[in-house]
Amino acid sequence: MSIKTANLGFPRIGSHRELKFALESYWAGKSNAAALLETAKKLRAENWELQQQKGIAIIPSNDFSLYDHVLDLAVMVGAIPAAYGWKGGPVDLDTYFAMARGSTGESHHGDCGHVHHGHGVPALEMTKWFDTNYHYMVPELRRDQAFTLTANRPLEAFLEAKALSIHTRPVILGPVTFLKLAKSTEAGFDTVELLDRLLPVYAKIFAELSAAGADWIQVDEPCLVLDLSDSERAALNQTYRALGEVVPDLKIMLAGYFGDLGDNLPAAIELPVAGLHVDLVRGPQQVEILLERTPDSLVLSLGVIDGRNIWRADLNAILNRIAPLVSRLGEHRLQIAPSCSLLHVPIDLDLEAGLDGELKTWLAFATQKLDELAVLGSGAADRSGVIGALEASLRAVAARASSSRVHDAGVAVRLAGIDGRMKRRGRAFLARKALQDDRLRLPLFPTTTIGSFPQTPEVRKSRAAYVKGAISGSDYEAFLRKETESAIRWQEEIGLDVLVHGEFERNDMVQYFGEQLSGFAFTAHAWVQSYGSRYVRPPIIFGDVSRPKPMTLEWWRYAQSLTEKPVKGMLTGPVTILNWSFVRDDLARADVSRQIALAIRDEVTDLEKAGAAMIQIDEAALREGLPLRQADWKAYLDWAVESFHLCSTGVADETQIHTHMCYSEFNQIIGAIAAMDADVISIETSRSKMELLEAFRSYKYPNEIGPGVYDIHSPRVPEVAEMTELMQLARGRLSDGQLWVNPDCGLKTRKWEEVRPALVNMVAAAHVLRTTG
Ligand code: GLN
Ligand code: ZN
Q1: Which ligand 1 atom minimizes the distance to the CA of 572?
Q2: Residues tagged active-site
Q3: How far away, in angstroms, is 36 Cα from ligand 2 center?
Q4: CB-based contact 26:37 (threshold 8 Å)
Q5: What are 79-131's pLDDT values in tens digits?
Q6: Which amino acid positions bind L-homocysteine, per UniProt (predicted)?
Q7: Which domains does the chain have, with CATH numbers?
Q8: Which of 214, 224, 307, 438 is close enough to 209 for a disulfide, judged by CB 3.0 to 4.6 Å?
Q9: 569-572 vs 614-618, strand pairing mode
């Protein structure tokens, strides 16, 4: 006897990034659609077979996507904006990829010999998928949107698996989450209002699946973990009443994940669905309510293996936690599952030959998580069959808990020693400003950049050669010095006021620091999809964090030695490092953040000692880390701000602290930004026509701000007049003495041919501003 194991989704990218290479080859015109689709089919088959071989009872299908599952659904239901030129009928690959990536306007010869897409169309907008680092394409819906089934993808996937003799449970994104995540192209209408028109398409999909022999479908409604409006709750009600009635033979496993269902749980549990999946990793306390309230016929899928992190589970603790549910509901009404799709974790730990052996025994990637599910499935019914595995789990948990690799007494002492003075600057901002103005003597509207200059093919090539051992450390360093020197010379030449060293030595703004801090590990193959064919390898924070030695000091010192102008010290902030890593689960995120902050504080202090008058601490991902529920925002922002204080307050009032944030809805976090009390913040604003400054104006934000005037996401070179106009808009909202002139973000992804004229224009724009009232 055992409890059924169920998986909610498996990574699509292939253990050796096969999907990325197939996509890029197709986009480059080096291979045809048939080859791409063949690779995709092979990956799906491999995933199904792996799950079958691991003993997973309920295997998902239609969890695969060539680019993004939200885009897939939009295309499947015919929600294709007119600009993409779709005329009805099946949607071809080029239309799909035009929605994903934009089309350049270059003619592209499809396999059929026809020429598609004669004109350029931008891609759909892309945004963060809940609080993950996965990004989805935002569907665009009109008030008069019609929906039609262009292809029954869950059915195709189900049949494809069936042909391999694997009976699957197809997955589809639920209609309410889909509509809620979509954006409306017209003001004053809520996309959820389109539900009545969308439901018939779902009904058709369900009916066809049922006719083909599917018995269950997994319907993902992660919106269940968000704050929902009454109309959204009503929409969920309407959806599951309707779908249950139209196709009674197809059982629905309604999946809410990425958190506690919270105030939505009582309603969710009453919905007329056959099954409910809950995330017990992030919401373990739900067990109590489930014990009390689960209706008699409902099947529960218990999300007990962490689909968002890479740690090996404490299997014994999980079995203990779910034991009351097992005895109350019985084995047949339970399934054991990961908390969410395994999309968000890397595929296979066994590929990490270079990773420290002890650390490896604490980790589980997607493949290993399948093994854990299997152990839990049989152990939940009867532990005697899996004693060996449970003992191994105990040993791993105990070893990690007591390992000296994880616990550093020195770090604990420092954390305990945090006091109030480490959380504030000496004087208030205006007094600091007077001292800094006196020291720095910058003109009005000072010009600067955000830190990085182009990572040219030569820079990348040189780094790759160094990493491979093809060139020596000293040759690599000599090369970087040369790049840095010419960047400094060039910045002086065009008359920028505050210079940067250019970050040529950095592979990535988080990895560069992680590699020099203790407590971090890096992988070779542990890729996770960020969007489309873009994958990242997040660092793993496994232990107490400290800084063995200075990280950026020598580069700053060298750059500053070349010029009389101030060069900013350039660091990544603790919250950003945290939000872009896999974080240990045995310590509160707030404490991990504080540890990183203290390490950065040491670097800040060293930079100041070496003579840096300005130090920038980037918090690009601060807004990204906001919890899904508003009730949790304050706690997060409190420790995020505290972390910024911990790293930035060890300096004299004469030292100017900068920070940088990429595009954000600043009105949600303006209070926290003000509390951070950076002397200068640079932000991404060029595309919003400075509307984002409204949050700062209405808050009466007192400190200095550099609103970006150069859209670094585009190869286009902005004219002087454009940038002057943007700054004039900024002057309408803030005082002249507050304003800096800078690009939206770092320039690492641009080419020098674009950056040079753009920054020359930017400096010219600042001159115009200085001479106009
Ligand atoms: N200093 C970093 C750079 O210029 C900041 C990048 C970011 O905010 N994403 O590249
Ligand atoms: Zn940025």
Answers
A1: 1
A2: 713
A3: 34
A4: no
A5: 999 999 999 999 999 999 999 999 875 544 333 333 344 457 889 999 999 99
A6: 450-452, 503, 618
A7: 4-105+120-402 (3.20.20.210), 426-455+483-506+552-771 (3.20.20.210)
A8: 214
A9: parallel
